[in-house]
Amino acid sequence: METLEFIIYPDGRVQEKVTGIVGTSCAEVTAAIEAQLGEVMSHKPTSEYFAQPVTPNTTTQVQSSFNEW
Predict the structure, then answer these.
(1) How does pLDDT run across 16-56, given as a tens digit for each residue?
(2) Is 69 part of a structural domain of the chain?
(3) Which residue range is the domain that position 25 belongs to?
(4) How many C-beta atoms surround the C-beta of residue 22 within 10 A?
(5) Which SS3 state, helix, strand or coil, does residue 16 take?
(6) What is the DSSP letter of 12?
């Protein structure tokens, strides 16, 4: 499940946390929001940012060999 969490501090700072989006596509999701919020002070990528999307492989090859001594 994709979620965006925003914490707005009394001094006006906004902390944004994105979860459930694998890879760098989270930057695409948040770009418009960040443009409206103002200057981005820092980015701290999570492990999901560095993960690669999993694509199922439907082809399986099995190779076996039997060697008699």
Answers:
(1) 999 888 888 888 888 998 899 888 888 888 888 888 766 77
(2) no
(3) 3-50
(4) 15
(5) strand
(6) S
